[in-house]
Amino acid sequence: MATKIETGPMGVGEGADVARFVARTLPDEAISETRFARQVLLDPNFELEGARIARDDGRIVGLCLAMGRRTPLENAPDDSDRGYLTLLAVAPEYRRQGIARTLVQAAEAYHRDGGRRQVQVSPYAPGYFIPGPDEAVHAGAVALLESLGYGKVYRPLSMECPLWRLTVPDWVEQAERDLEARGVRIRNLDTGLILPTIEFSARVFAGDWVRYAREAAHAILAGDCPERLVVAVDESGPNPVVVGYSHHAAERFGPIGVDPQRRGEKIGQVLMYRTLRAQQRAGYRTAWFLWSDDRTAERIYNGAGFRESRRFVLMKKDL
Ligand SMILES: CC(C)(COP(=O)(O)OP(=O)(O)OC[C@H]1O[C@@H](n2cnc3c(N)ncnc32)[C@H](O)[C@@H]1OP(=O)(O)O)[C@@H](O)C(=O)NCCC(=O)NCCS
């Protein structure tokens, strides 16, 4: 490594400089300063010690961001014995000098000191940027992590759906009528549905789903599109029971999920088209999401016109 390069933790006054460095060196990820501030600086799990920086004469030329659980995430299973690397970048003119290797090793030491026994790149909820390095765009990162002992876990894919061509198939409209005849209605989230939706999310999807429901409710109550969270509600009994929901935030689609007891009734398809139509009505030309597996893509998304746009590799290493 060039002798003038120094590495160490991020300084408390460096928030804006690091955000700009990230925006510049990871252009494919579209991480604006605001997004960085919200997703990293305001994350209660963020610690300056976990943000390892390389500097040349004081100028930021590299970053590896390590995140570990300090504040529990709703009802997600405890993952405090696991650490994550969520960002890794070196300025183009400083590459192949061993800077990233040094930064990743320092991030691993941070995790080890925090009692974590495994590092994953990078399925960190809720603040992940990508599920892992992009096989095409970040091939160097895959090679680097493999050389440091990381193994490939699986290959999540990201998909996009052009909305200007979207039409709702007749069978989906029929499925919606059939569901309605059985007392299952698709409704926008409103005050009465907040608690049943949170109850559903906590019961059926341990993890990040409760937070999505809460944040969507906050956003809708603050004036966001009321179709942002559409909920499938079984109203055939004395109390409304939520059996699925589908969420979007601007062009970003998801999450979408149906109670495992109620799968196979086409509730998922009806919810998906409701959300895509809402996005289309709001004027977006594309719907996209960052993370699916091949099986779900085949079962649900391909039929609606979603196509693979990126392929990632989730990696992990035992410390
Ligand atoms: C990936 C990245 C961080 C590597 O930074 P770097 O400082 O150049 O990496 P290092 O010099 O520490 O590399 C150490 C080893 O990793 C491997 N490696 C790194 N970049 C590589 C590349 N482009 N191709 C093949 N192997 C590579 C090599 O084994 C290398 O050792 P060597 O140079 O002696 O052959 C940098 O290329 C980058 O910022 N890329 C764009 C952003 C990115 O991909 N981020 C990861 C998102 S998950």
Beta content comes to 25-35%
What number of structural domains do the residues give?
Answer: 2
Largest sheet, in brief, is: 7 strands, mixed
The CA-CA distance between the termini, in Å, is 24 Å
Q: What ligand molecules are bound, each kind once?
A: coenzyme A
Number of strands: 14
Look up the CATH topology of the largest domain: Aminopeptidase
Helix % is 25-40%
Q: What is the molecular shape?
A: elongated
Backbone structural class: alpha+beta
**Secondary-structure element order, N to C:** EHHEEEHEHEEHEHHEEEHEHEE
Describe this entry's structure for a reader.
The chain contains 9 helices and 14 strands. It has 319 residues and is of the alpha+beta class. The chain has a 7-stranded mixed sheet. It has a 4-stranded antiparallel sheet with strand order 8-9-10-11, sandwiched between helices. Helix 1 packs across helix 2, helix 5 (170-181) crosses helix 8 (267-281) and helix 6 (191-204) packs antiparallel against helix 7. The model has no long low-confidence stretch (mean pLDDT 95). Bound molecules: coenzyme A. Coenzyme A is lined by residues 25-26, 88-90, 95-101, 133, 138, 140-141, 143-144, 147.
